[in-house]
Amino acid sequence: MSTIKLDEKLMIAKLMDKIKICKTNNKIVNTEFLNIYKRELLIKELNRLKEKNYLFFGGFKDSEYKILIMYPEKFKEEFDLYRNNNNSQIAENAINNIIKAIRIKLPKELIGKYEHRDYLSAVMKFGLVRERMGDIIVHEDGAYIMVLKENAEYIKNSLEELIRFRKSEIEIINIDKVELKPIDFKEIKISVSSNRLDNFVSEICKISRSQTEELLKNEKIYLNSKLETKASKEVKLEDILVIRGRGKFKVCEKLGTNKKGKNIVGILKYM
Prior knowledge:
Blueprint: H1 3-25, E1 29-34, H2 36-48, E2 54-57, E3 66-70, H3 76-83, H4 89-96, E4 99-105, H5 116-124, E5 133-139, E6 142-148, H6 149-161, E7 169-173, E8 185-192, H7 197-205, H8 209-217, E9 221-223, E10 226-227, E11 240-243, E12 247-257, E13 263-270
Antiparallel strand pairs: 1-3, 2-3, 4-6, 4-7, 5-6, 8-13, 9-10, 9-11, 11-12, 12-13
């Protein structure tokens, strides 16, 4: 059995434990932060089990990483209100007790100097796995890092000890205090003869099929957060494609066909 399959079995086993705790102890439970691939895996299992009392949330609406929150029947009405963007103090309090944000405000001399990778690499130095934090929202003058509340104090204190952030202001805040920013995209169009992954990668990167094969072989390509090495894997609308060293892309729409009969597809590149 492959490592991936073993990982999937472990994820499902952990999910079953969470469901048991939720129902037996009549309490709200949560997972770590999950990428889209892991969420889809758990959704399939939740649907199979006919579970309804859950939601995925990462601190803000369009977050890339989200935690799974499961709640007992007594909280169903409150979480239904929250899901429909209505006020629910119980649900809000529960979520604020699970997710916090760490706000980093840079000194004047460092404004505009740090990128997403600088903040990510800083936190990864502390020995935490990626699943212990969610999205990182980068501004010119700093960043917000979504984290599990149980790790917030440790991450804050560790960041304060790093030389790069020694003059920065760092604090733990509630997620409703996070300043969001619109995601910047560049729109591009490609023409593909089929929905095979290698076709998309070749056209997006403007490289040969043999170069695309090298990227797949060297494990540089992720489809919906899952490492993909199969050239014939089908790409669908709304899929997220990450090509290491080339960028992150979203397949957004089919725009018709060209004179050669190839499909014209709209792609959004994350900037």
